[in-house]
Amino acid sequence: MLKFFVVCTLAVASRAEIAEEEDVLVLKKSNFDEALAAHPSILVEFYAPWCGHCKALAPEYAKAAGMLKAEGSEIRLAKVDATEETELAQEYGVRGYPTIKFFKGGEKESPKEYSAGRQADDFINWLKKRTGPAVATLADVSQAETLIADNEVTIIGFFKDAGSDGAKAFQKAAEAIDDIPFGMTSEDAVYSKFEMAQDGVVLFKKFDEGRNTFDGELTKANLLDFIKANQLPLVIEFTEQTAPKIFGGEIKSHILMFVPKTASDFQDKMDQFKKAAEGFKGQILFIFIDSDVDDNQRILEFFGLKKEECPAIRLITLEDEMTKYKPEKDMISAESITQFCTLFVEGKLKPHLMSQDIPDDWDKNPVKVLVGKNFEEVVFDPAKNVFVEFYAPWCGHCKQLAPIWDKLGEKYKDSADVVVAKMDSTANEIEAVKVHSFPTLKFFPAGEEHKVIDYNGERTLEGFTKFLESGGKEGGAPAGEETDDLDDIDEVEEPDSEDSDGEEGHDEL
């Protein structure tokens, strides 16, 4: 009995050692398994202390943790410092910050990736959909009103017979969506309150027209299309909080209006933009970006824009490759935007590829400078083996690589058939190569075949030299294979180069 008492006491003491910060459990390798065992439903954020995205997320994450704790929920939120707990981070494939995973039933294997927004309500809605019924039963008007009032978007099914085909399709649609609450009612009072004369589905929202009523054959596919077209505002502002909804949504064609909120004609331009958006619901997502916000400057740079060039319109597709489109005219009117989007939908637009002018001294230094206008002429010279670094001026990893790349250029400056080059991919684009992270290193061997080989070896002078001397066989892979590109929404940020730990990595575009 004494032994049993001691074991139980130690177990309780051990469990008590899991610290909390603002109601968020602080997990380490030493207490991770214990936390999963103690809490059947636990959302874990893998973060880096220096990550701007993580800092922006922290208040809402803590708010959600506090709200769940206050209502006595079994669901807990936790965090892991991935820069300290590197073994845990590696075990769960953490490649970007923040990475958020959901563990259920104490199972360590194959946690569910968190895929919703970053407001407290987003976390709570997603978690409750994962841990409870996909559809809440609404027994009276009060319950329906509360569900609508507590959420930005709510979907309610009105079905007298919960076993009908329409109700079953509604249930299946609810199970397919993680971040929007669904409710179902058969009560006459609820029908009357929301002016429903017959069975149907209504999407309630706190923006635009306030509600959308489904009209069509009640199937899972049709309901999902209806929700996709109406769950976001006609025009959504790009912010830290809305980014997951923008990039994680079903609509992969985005038109962006870059405009300063302080502009005297801001509201007029927004009205024109919104009017055009009405004709492309479910096809193109309309986004506006405040061009005066410092945090948005990298986005402007990505599109080759400067603040003084705004307002401006650009369109981008995110499906297979990020392809950009630019309107022929700078005018921002509902008519011009509608015409631009119509040409895009009909497949009649040509991609817009940015390029700087060719510098007069592009080939004067050991490392040659490439831009869009001279890229193909240089890299596809059949007599040359060309090794190119695709970089971004702000990328910490690129800054670390720069002195090594310069030494490589110096080593081969007198070579008759080897060219070491670099290209600023934030200002130049080419059809032959799509760059998603920095630095990206590619080798273009001599010959008429226009081959491209990805470099995946060590970023050292010795590694690069061995690669070149082997003709691209040591440390390389055919383009498109074994790449280290990062597809996460969030960039993998790094401290400034002088604070970096020297490890190899990529900064996302």
Fold and architecture overview:
The protein is α/β, with parallel strands linked by helices and 509 residues long. The protein contains 16 helices and 24 strands. Helix 7 (165-176) crosses helix 9. Residues 1-16 and 478-509 have low confidence and may be disordered.
Keywords:
509 residues; 24 strands; single chain; six-stranded mixed beta sheet; globular; alpha/beta; 16 helices
Secondary-structure content class: alpha/beta
Strand order of the largest sheet: 1-2-4-3-5-6
Hey, roughly how much beta strand do the residues contain? 15-25%
Question: Spans of 5+ residues with little confidence (pLDDT < 50)?
Answer: 1-16, 478-509
Shape: globular
The mean pLDDT is: 86
State the assembly state of the protein chains.
Answer: single chain
Number of helices: 16
First CA to last CA: what distance?
62 Å
The helix fraction, in percent, is 25-40%
